[in-house]
Amino acid sequence: MTFNGRNALKAAIVLFIAAVVAALYFTPARQYMTREHIGEGVALMRGLWYGPAVLVLAYAIGCIFAVPASIFIIASGVVWGWKLGGMYAMMGGMLGAVISYFVGRFLGEGLLQKFGSAGRMVERQISSAGLKTMVIVRLIPGPPFAVWNYGAGVAGVKFSNYYLGTLLGTFPAHMIFAYSADALFNGTMTQGDAVRRLVIVTGLLLALTLLPTIIKRFVRPEPAP
Asked: What distance in Å separates the CA atoms of residue 88 and residue 180, rounded to the nearest whole number?
């Protein structure tokens, strides 16, 4: 592929992703990402023996086009419970994260070098970011899942650090949201059971919020290369 052809392909990928994201968020298609339609999807997947595969693929595709991850995690937790549902959601999230990373890496090829000394400084900072840094980044609430996925690829984060950091950093949130969905929507619970579940969910969410601060305080900074 020629240089011009490569640039044309990059432009086409960017335009395609942007067009799909715009269609999802700025057209009537947005209504399908509501709680009511999640319920319809849950009802459909309950009757499919291949439902887990559908969920994994849908979540992976959703990651590419910046569909909120919570939609898939909640649906998975409701359909299969927090244990299996959380694991299925993790599989879909990781698949989407890997695809997005390599798309970002392709699109961002040579991008930092175009910004001169500022770009080189960013590149040095990125090269020194290891696994612990990636875990902390993934634990901190903030930019959508897809932003970190593409950003890590564009910035050239080492894949092994990206993959393990994403796996470890997003696992707590996936399991907590799946557990919350399972607790709120499934089964019949006594008042005492409901209170205990609520206390557990509150504690887990609080722990997830404080975890990045705890890691930063007790984990030594990674040495510069």
From this structure: 15
